[in-house]
Prior knowledge:
The protein is α+β, with helices and mostly antiparallel strands. It has helices at about 5-10, 15-25, and strands at about 30, 35, 45-50, 55-60, 75-80.
Amino acid sequence: MRLDLFLKTARLVRRRAVAKALCDEGRVFIDGRPAKAGAVVQPGQTIAVRFGERTLRVRVKAVPASKAADPAELVERLDDEG
């Protein structure tokens, strides 16, 4: 699943367009590296999203086959800095 769609499905952002904009601005990281919106998300990866002063870090527990998935089962929150 694409990163921008995963961020929306896991409810880390409200809209896919917002997720794409965050990626384009270099504020989304997969395993410590800047990630593009089209990057493929795999279970076990760590995703960090910077929202201004705040950084949200999560670990991917599962990648859904479709958009209809329970967000609580997709990610494990690691920390929320800032």
